[in-house]
Design a protein that fits this description.
Layout (H helix, E strand, L loop, with lengths): L10 H33 L10 H11 L2 H44 L2 H7 L5 E4 L4 E2 L4 E2 L4 H12 L4 E5 L11 H4 L7 H16 L7 E4 L2 E2 L2 E2 L1 E5 L8 E3 L2 E8 L2 E5 L1 H15 L2
Parallel strand pairs: 1-4
Antiparallel strand pairs: 2-3, 4-8, 5-8, 6-7, 9-10, 10-11
Helix pairs in contact: 1-3, 5-7
Length: 274
């Protein structure tokens, strides 16, 4: 029987542990002496402390107190230092993540749409001819929405990117006008609402924050560009009672089985979350 490989500690946990240990050391070496100095300056006259200087007071205290009497106090300062350091580390990581998110969005939104269309599909760009309008049957087909949901979650679980609705696989501009006619609100607001409803019902409400819709006009036809941010935790597509895991690979979206999904999550997200 093969033994299971040891479970790896998350880089984020290792980082917090390191900063916590460093904060504990600084708490003992810096905070404790600082509090001792403040105590000396504030209470010297009131308690008739014989020492003439802070250094004399500190040395006398160390000489007259047994080491085990200082352990509780050092433990308190170590805990204070570790707690403060962990909070600062976690807050700094949150700010860094937000800054990376803003920078990525700015870069993605600044990319010229015509240039993207001419470049064709890639690991960060996919075209879909429609949201629910069946071009072959020339009628509404809501089952097509699941194809769009798969594309969105595939980008989320990879590096993020753009999904453009209203352009076929060959780069031909079709537009979303036919799609809009199938909606209750037959305009871009209704289209965006339909996209968000689809994301919420298939991927979860938390995934809606990673989706941003634009409605540019190309060759007198309006298309929908969905800018999809990378998720920093795995996102699953809820297909009935089954949760399915998709990822963008090359210029296609592929479903991973349980083993492949576990490997992708372990390797990909742990690296990104450092």
């Amino acid at each position: 029987m093969k033994s299971r490989p040891p479970k790896q500690i998350s880089p984020f946990i290792r980082r917090l542990a390191f900063h916590g240990a460093l904060g504990a050391i600084l708490g003992v070496l810096l905070l404790h002496p600082l509090i001792t100095a403040v105590f000396f300056l504030e209470f010297k006259s009131q308690f008739d402390i014989p020492s003439e200087s802070i250094w004399d007071f500190a040395i006398t205290r160390l000489q007259t107190n047994a080491w085990f009497e200082l352990v509780p106090m050092n433990a308190i300062f170590a805990l204070i230092g570790a707690s403060f350091s962990i909070v600062i580390s976690a807050y700094s990581r949150t700010l860094d993540a937000q800054q990376r998110r803003v920078s990525w969005l700015e870069k993605e939104l600044d990319m010229n749409l015509l240039y993207l269309v001419d470049a064709g599909e890639s690991e960060c760009l996919e075209f879909k001819s429609s949201l629910r309008w069946d071009q072959r049957k020339q009628e509404s087909n809501k089952s097509l929405e699941m194809v769009v949901a798969k594309s969105i979650v595939g980008l989320m679980n990879h590096r993020g990117g753009s999904l453009i609705i209203g352009i076929d696989d060959d780069g031909q501009i079709i537009g979303i006008e036919a799609d809009c006619q199938t909606l209750r609100h037959k305009n871009t607001d209704g289209f965006e609402r339909a996209i968000m409803d689809l994301v919420r019902t298939t991927l979860g409400a938390h995934a809606c924050t990673l989706v941003h819709c634009q409605f540019p006009v190309i060759d007198d036809r309006q298309v929908c560009r969905i800018v999809v941010e990378k998720a920093y935790a795995p996102i699953y597509l809820q297909d009935g009672k089954v949760a399915r895991y998709f990822v963008r690979t090359g210029n296609s979206t592929r479903e991973l089985d349980a083993r492949e999904a576990q490997e992708h999550i372990t390797q990909g997200y742990h690296v990104e979350n450092q």
